[in-house]
Amino acid sequence: MTTAKETGFVGKLPGALPGLALLIGTMVVIRLWVEPWMANAVVFGQKGWLIKVTHLNYILLGIIMGMLYRNVLFGGKLPEVFADGFRLSRLFIKTGIILLGSLYTVQAIVKLGALAIFLIGGFVVLSIVMVLWLGKLFGMERSMTGVMANACSICGVSAAVATAPAVEAKAAHVAYAIATILGFGILTMFISPFIGHALGLNDLQYGAWVGTGILNSGQVLAACLAFNPTVAPGTAVSVGEIWNIMRVISIPFAVFAVTVWYWAGHEQPQGQRKSLTTLLVEKFPVFVLGFLGMVLLTSIGAFGDAGIKGGPPASATIKMIRDWMQWIFGIGLVGMGGYIDFKELRQAGGTPLKVGLIVGVTKYVLALVVVLLIRDYLVEI
């Protein structure tokens, strides 16, 4: 008798269709009906209050729906009829990460300058080392430590999702990392503008600080616009975003480094010990190479103009790729929400939160100190 595990992807596809239909149908309803309704609904006399105040978008709504399916509608376990479809959610997420490469070009990275690259790279490395050390100190699970290391060092959600498959992390690990960085980010999003104005920072200094010190990309954007709502070259948002983009570009390198760390110390069954080289070949996330390939293809104009700030608008092909990316991420994250088990979250304890806050606060304060020290050497892009 042929089992589901013995068949290939094509053989599994018919069994995965019910789950895939649920994932895709959920995202279609959210993007075509729920989001537009939230944008137009009038609450407390204000149109769009639900989005402006709660900051919910299709990504967060998708994760929430996946969690509700598993923990409320299905009573804590995915039914077999949907399980194979939900298992394909990681394939969607990896595909989306590859397409993320269409956001960047090598030429745009070069404009940042050596000082900015050195500073951003230094904070990424410092954050990874701190989390790995604290994870060992507090006895945190190795896969949880790996996810937290990149979530705290780069751009939060994307880095946590990208690292998870490389270090065999559970959905609960990703959920803990995302909850920690989003919680910390909300706090810094509100207090950063007040600190920036109190210290007399200009847009360049403020953008460099929050682009380095705040963990999540969306919250970097919000903190910059809260400081100066003007969107133009040289304003806080233009500086903060380009610094943040440089940090995001380091995702594949950070995933590679953490993957090496994870498998180098991973306990294997007696008699099955493998060399680090073998482990790297077997476990290296191939989608990272796909991401780098997309960056190179975008840089040589294979898809037309990339739409980088200051250049020509994005081509129709680039716009189409980015539209696909939104749908692919959305569908994949509904599936990821379906693997978040509330019982596992309760069992995980508060150690990940403790590690995330220690590293987050250190990075936030240290980034401000460094920017104040080098304020006269910052170069406006």
Write a brief structural summary:
The chain is mainly alpha-helical and 381 residues long.
How far do the termini sit from each other? Answer: 63 Å
Q: Strand order across the biggest sheet?
A: 1-2
Query: Which whole number gives the mean pLDDT?
Result: 80
Question: What's the shape?
Answer: globular
How many whole angstroms does the radius of gyration measure? 21 Å
Share of residues in helices: over 70%
SS-derived structural category: mainly alpha
Number of strands: 2
**Count of individual helical segments:** 19
Q: Percent of residues in beta strands?
A: under 5%
Largest sheet: 2 strands, antiparallel
Order of helices and strands: HEEHHHHHHHHHHHHHHHHHH
Could you name the ranges where pLDDT drops below 50 across 5 or more consecutive residues?
1-6
What does this protein structure show overall?
The protein has 381 residues and is mainly α. The protein has helices at residues 9-40, 49-54, 58-73, 80-87, 89-100, 106-110, 114-137, 142-153, 157-163, 171-198, 203-213, 217-227, 236-249, 251-264, 276-283, 286-299, 316-337, 342-348, 351-373, and strands at 42-43, 46-47. It has a two-stranded antiparallel sheet. Strand 1 (42-43) and strand 2 (46-47) form a beta hairpin. The longest helix has 32 residues, at 9-40. The chain is globular, with a radius of gyration of 21 Å. Residues 1-6 have low confidence and may be disordered.
